[in-house]
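ARCHIVE CARD
Drawer: 12
Card no.: 0347
Subject: one protein chain, sequence and derived structure
Cross-reference: see card 0346
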Amino acid sequence: MTVAVVLLTTALVLVVALLAAAGAGKLARLDGATYPAALTRAATAFAAVVTLAAAVSGALAALLS
């Protein structure tokens, strides 16, 4: 059961990260950024969400153990 929870949480984090990246890329493109600049902003947003999720899960793991 624990493995299923971890896999579902990982999938949810990845979906949220992809949605944030898509939103950041679209907003950058609407702001007049070039395609490479918009892709860079999308990648930055994706990495930020994944990093934040890793930091939060590490902090929770430290608190629960």
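Annotation on reverse: Residues 2-64 form one domain. Residues 29 and 35 are 7 Å apart (CA to CA).
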